[in-house]
Specification:
Layout (H helix, E strand, L loop, with lengths): L10 H126 L1
Length: 137
């Protein structure tokens, strides 16, 4: 009679097997976590590259806009400079014209005054001459 003796697995071996299974599960979970983190980093890297390209495009646009704005300011300054000279010239000619008008009227009034005095002087001289001739008579 042969008895088959079934080997019994000791509790230590069962515990070690259970620990190894838990480690396998933990490693599997860790592997999944690492893969997820790698995928996230890859996505972030791609997004970073896209954002850098977008930033370069925007910088080019801003540079073009700055050049246009600077050109516009330069043009406006040139126009304002020309306007300033035009205003100075107009003011000068208005001043010359107004001085000429005032001088013209001052001379005219002086001439009228002189004419009036000339009319009055001969009349007064004639009266003086008449008075002298009467006094002599």
């Amino acid at each position: 009679m042969a008895f088959f003796i079934q080997p019994t697995v000791s509790s230590d071996i069962k515990q070690k097997i259970q620990e190894l299974n838990e480690i396998r599960t933990a490693l599997s979970t860790l592997d999944t976590y690492v893969e997820n983190q790698q995928n996230s980093l890859k996505k972030l890297s791609v997004e970073k590259l896209e954002l850098e390209k977008e930033r370069e495009k925007i910088e080019k646009i801003l540079q073009i806009d700055r050049e246009k704005i600077n050109a516009l300011f330069d043009y406006q300054a040139a126009v304002e400079g020309r306007r300033a000279w035009l205003e100075i010239l107009i003011s000068f000619f208005i001043g010359v014209l107004s001085s000429s008008v005032v001088t013209f009227f001052a001379i005219r009034m002086q001439n009228k005054k002189d004419e009036k005095e000339e009319r009055n002087v001969p009349h007064n001289q004639a009266n003086s001459a008449d008075a002298k001739s009467r006094a002599a008579d």
